[in-house]
Amino acid sequence: MSQRTVYDKLWDSHLVQQNEDGSALLYIDRHILHEVTSPQAFEGLRIAGRKPWRLDTNLATPDHNISTDPAERAAGVAGIPDNTSRIQVQTLDDNCDHFGIKEFKMNEMGQGIVHVMGPELGATMPGLTVVCGDSHTATHGALACLAHGIGTSEVEHVLASQCLVTKKMKNMRVTVDGVLGAGVTPKDVVLAIIAEIGTAGGNGHAIEFAGSVFRDMSIEGRMTVCNMAIEAGARVGLVAVDEKTIEYCRGRQFMPAGEMFEKATEYWRTLTTDADAVFDTEVQINGSEIAPQVSWGTSPEMVIPVTGNIPRAEDQTDVVKKKGVERALEYMGLEGGAPISSVAVDRVFIGSCTNSRIEDMRAAAAVVEGRTVSDSIKQALVVPGSQMVKEQAEAEGLDKIFIEAGLDWREPGCSMCLAMNADKLGAGEHCASTSNRNFEGRQGNGGRTHLMSPEMAAAAAIAGHIVDVREFGDQS
Amino acid sequence: MKAFTQHKGLVGPMDRANVDTDMIIPKQFLKSIKRSGFGPNLFDELRYMDEGQPGQDCSQRPVNPEFPLNLARFSGASILLARKNFGCGSSREHAPWALEDYGFRAVIAPSYADIFYNNCFKNGLLPVVLSEQQLDLLFAEMYADEGYQLTIDLVGQKVVRPNGESFEFDIDQFRKDCLVKGLDEIGLTLESADKIKDYEKTRAADQPWVFGAIK
User: Which of A8, A22, A49, A149 gives a 20 to 30 Å CA spacing to B52?
Assistant: First the structure.
């Protein structure tokens, strides 16, 4: 057989039927559902008189829309103050109960942001196809899965048939070699990649992240990177299996155990790219040169090193690009040419499916420990990605470190990443955010997002402005 | 699903690159459990001067007079001209739902984000790809000519300009078939139920840990 990439292997092993018109039926092993993109799919099933094809593949939880405020959360679903939000969360519960789908309900251990929950429970396994009605599903590719976001019609399609009608993507490899410097994190790596290839750079491709930087990276770090493949235009991002992958999987709730686990690992170890496999597109980046990154504008490609200056519209040669920079500067209320580290911050958000895992919590806590949030900060939220992350963080005393420093310790959910609940920016407010999108209005109408790592966001909370975390120790 | 064979209609602009799904339909409207009614909130933050809320009567809201689709000359537009990477961002199908509910039957752009592109076809909304040069020309003609209309012929795979000249476009055969015939894709897939079951048998024998895990 010819030399294949990890993506080729995953595709081949899930192909049910190749159609003459170029489409294919791809088998789906794992389907994760949440309250926002599923109600219309369940309704469609009901109208057509259909049932889920398989139950043991689906896993549901509310995350996008729920309150992160401890008092509101304690009041349960009936206590959700916003009428439409309450109906949506209740509808997920009702649909899962009606169809017999496994759900971790709002305040149940196991609940969390879909892309934090799946891997930590072991529902995400190497070699699976994983889909969810959420574009950040690529996160699961960190465990060598073929994982991508789907729309609501496809949620219904997968529920009804366990398959997707789809077309094979092209292969892209992003190789980052070298060694990351101190204070440089997986978030900085993926932001640097997006800055390099652009938000449409990966369109039509599945990206494999390769090279020494990813081999050295933890599984949670790989999740942060794969999570943002979509911000580079690629629906799929993944990393090949290595011993770290296997060790991460061992002992998790839905994982096989004992002999079955060992048998599974034999297969999982084959999920690497063959030496002579050919990629349609190759990108190479020197990891040793990556500095902590910050977004200045309204697209995830509008990213610069924290040591850099905000771009000026007049320096752009391309007309469409120049217009884009002008509009972004105006929206963000920034002056081209000014250092990014001069930008004052109003709110801080540490959380989201990109950066809310235990390693992120530890990293942020280490920065704020023994320090105090700047008086100029209106709010600094720390939102753990799941009930399990929250429990672990509290066991380590991280919640106390955050609270003592003046940050809010919240209940798990998507929160201010997309501001569907009460956690949002006011118009004109700047936010140091560990989330994944800096689109206009994303974190609140008129809000201004600066994407960065948990360490950098924590440092901004203390300093009151964007600051290079590598020099931060000297300032206090 | 609504079939699409040919459509002639007024053309309106969304003249910027990287229009994201938050811009197409802001998050507060995603709380709905319905598929319809998103049209009045299409491009909500650009279209109105205030912050929109779900369930609000939009006819009473202050509109942004500078937003092109608010101009009388584009009222009733059913074909949207757009720039590259249209629909980037989230997987929310509410984006094509909002475009369709507003009255658009087709979008013409140089490129789309993958998930958005896919979602359009499930909702009878045709995303046409033309080159940047062709888009430049269509934008220029549209701005110059009030009441500018285009005809999109999906069967013949061409966009016909008022002067009778046309631009051809590519489209996947299976997507075209589904749209032209307005097919129920799930029904189509379930015709292969035996093949899906056969696949499951083979897979369960090879990789038993994949099955029965979630309970």
Answer: A149
